[in-house]
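[scheduler] slot 2 assigned
[scheduler] job type: sequence-to-structure, two independent chains
[scheduler] chain ordering preserved from manifest
[runner] begin chain α
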Amino acid sequence: MVLEAKRIGKENKILVLGVFLLILVIGVFSYLNRNPEDLKEGQILFKAGNTKLSVMTVDDLKKLPSVEKKMTVRTSRGDEEHLYTMTPLRGVLEAIDPKLTEEYEKIIARGIDGYTSGVTMSEVLEPDNVYLAYLDQGRPLPAQKVGAGTESVQVIICRDQFGQRFVKFLVSMEVEN
């Protein structure tokens, strides 16, 4: 009876230790995945390393030259028809600093959901290729959080056949070498 009580006590200690370690791991991952720049949908932070270059809103994008482009995007659910209103990323970068397209080689785009994708500066410089879309069929792109009342921005790369690098809910773009 005494040995059985000791064994149950030892099993409880192991269980408590396991729960503690699980909570610790969750805390560490939460810290690592935090949003230190307080990024919000409807705003795009442009940066180079730790240097903040600009923050643009959907309204700022609407003031830049835009195009309407009808596209068929192949998805896992089948083909989707879109009529995007969008601004060329090249024009956005030149509005921030005309030298960005010359000084950097690639751009890392990140959505509020953590989805991250990259595009080379040579792709950005190709005519009719990389855009920031803010309307589809004349309606604002929806935010990730339903009912948030926030417009969203999506990276569109016209030469991507399946749209794997289309970043929805765009909140940051970082230029890199």
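[runner] end chain α
[runner] begin chain β
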Amino acid sequence: MLAARLAKYRARPRVYVGCMKSGTVLSQKGMKYHEPEYWKFGDEGNKYFRHATGQIYAVSRDLASYISINQPILHRFANEDVSLGAWLFGLEVEHVDDRSLCCATPPDCEWKKQAGNARGLARIGSAMLMTNGSRLYNGRDHCRFASGHALLP
């Protein structure tokens, strides 16, 4: 199901697919998704730039390679989805808002749970990045596969 959905983007060189949103940057300590570097996003109450969020999102092979090569110099924010969005923000990238990848409530997320324990899987073509919700992994080096499902370490 997911592979077929992403296959239509394979020919696009720089595509970023997911449930796109722009939420308020949370500056208050102790809150879920608190961003310690909130001040970098402007005045209190500002919003993040549009980025893919939720249980799953994908990037093209070219973008996955770019991230893999430049990972040592890419800044990481408190939330991995914001980090990924920041890394792609200044690049010529096609953002695709695929609402079917949104996951607001547990019932919406059931099919995503069926796909394994990965919070996010970024793969179009043969390059792959994966995330467990806090850290990005190079899929080929750090992820195991069982019955077609990606499993993080």
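[runner] end chain β
[qc] chain β: The helical segments are 2-7, 61-70, 80-89, 106-114, 139-142.
[scheduler] slot 2 released
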